[in-house]
Amino acid sequence: MRPARPGRPGRPVGAVTRGTTGHNRLRRCDRWIAAVYGPLLRSGRAGTAPPLVVDLGYGASHVTTTELFTRLRRVCPVVEVVGVEIDPERVAAAKPYEREGLSFVRGGFELPVPRPPLIVRAFNVLRQYGEDEAWAHWDLLRAGLHPSGVVVEGTCSEIGHRATWVALGAEGPRTLTFAARFTGFGRPSDLAERLPKTLIHRNVPGQPVHAFLADWDRAWATCAPFGAYGARQRWIKAAELVARDWPVETLPPTGGPGRWRLGELTLPWSGVSPVGSSGGW
C-alpha cells in the first residue's frame, strides 16, 4: 500500500469537489448502511460517548447529511452525525441546519472530529483524483476509524439511480455493492460508469471486475423471460444465476432476496480485487 499523503499542518486534506447534490440522491446507500451497520451503531451505545458517523464531502447542500442523520436515528436514536466539507462557504451555509446530534465542520480526509467514527460515508469525493491518490485516501480514512468501524466509499449518478460503493474496514476493503433503480439501466454493466476510482479504470479484459460484469450481463439476458413479472424478479433471478459462478453475497444482511429485491447486489472484495493494483489488496 502507498502511504497516505498528509496535508500541511492545520490544513484540510483534499480538494474542493463540484458539490453537486440533491434530495434522496444517496438514499440507496443510506438504506444499506442502516440495514447492514445498524447493529454496529447500536453496539456503540455501550460506550461513554454516542456512536459517531461522518459524512465526508457532503457538497453544496446540507441535505444528504441531514437525510443520513434522519435515517440512522431510526435505527440508533442516539447516533451523532458530523458533516465534513472542505469548502468553508459550504460549511457556513449548513450551520443553520445543525441540531442536537447533527453538526457541520470544515475538513477533509484527515477527519477533524472529536473521536474515531464508527462509520464514514464518503460519496462522490474520489472521482477527481488519480488511482494512486484514491488508494492513499482510502488508507488515510481507515487510519482515522474506530477499530470496529467502516468506511463506505462510492459514487452515484446525478439523481442516484445508479450507484456502487465499497465497504472498508481497518483491515482493508471488504465488499463491493452495486445498486440501481430498476428503470435506470439497460443491463447491469451500465453501472460500470459508477465504479469506485480504484476499479473504474480496471474494467478491462483480464481484470476480475470486467469478467464479473460480463457474466452478470449474460445472466441478465438469460433471465429476460422473468421480465414478464417485472424487472425486480428478473434482477433476483439474474443474481441467483450469477451467484453460481461468483461469490455473490447470498445471506443477510448484505445479500439474498431481501437485498436483491431492492436492486442491490454485493460481492466480497476478494472477488473483484484488481490485478496489478498499487493498493496492495
Automatic annotation (TrEMBL):
Quick one: where's region Disordered? 1-21
Q: Give residue spans, biased composition: Low complexity.
A: 10-19
The protein, known as: Methylase
Give the lineage. Answer: Bacteria, Bacillati, Actinomycetota, Actinomycetes, Streptosporangiales
